[in-house]
Design goal:
This protein is of the alpha+beta class. Helix content is 33%, strand content 19%. The structure holds inosine-5'-diphosphate and magnesium ion.
Amino acid sequence: MNQAVLILIKPDGLKKSLTGNILTRLSETKLEIVAAKMARVSRELATEHYKHLTDKPFFDDLIKYLRGELHDRRKVMALVYWGEDAIKKCRDLAGATNPEEAESTSIRGSYGRITTSGVYENVIHVSSNADEAQREIQLWFAPEEIIVDLYPVKEAAEIKRQKKIWA
Ligand code: IDP
Ligand code: MG
């Protein structure tokens, strides 16, 4: 079954110059990239993305981590991969959440670490099921940023606002 999955290269991955390595690993899946961008991560976006973890003791550090406050990189790379069994293929390549438990050949096992303050710096985010993928993709991307029609859309009048164009 064809599926979409959200991948984030987290700020530790960017700081360690791992973008190329991670994309190379993900290309083993033969999945198609249907959206990609660099994104700044507002507190609202980070909190919404990780809202299932609000009650966890590590939540504040996790928000700081995703926002790049721990790595001086105030951005992430966001991608949508699409194809047969996309979620399982990408989760398998990513490895376990805890980088110390992740298989050593997986992306998290190869490049992740646990900091002395207990943050799991595990280099990438991968959606864990189809519902989560839809919620996350709709959170990170607008329909026109994705080159295939993944989910239903509706027409909305655009509110006229100032925007930057090339000078
Ligand atoms: P996942 O990223 O493998 O789907 P989730 O349970 O959704 O795992 O957790 C989201 C993120 O929160 C993880 O990728 C990791 O960065 C962080 N995290 C999860 N569990 C822990 C923990 O026990 N200690 C510290 N950080 C954690
Ligand atoms: Mg998760």
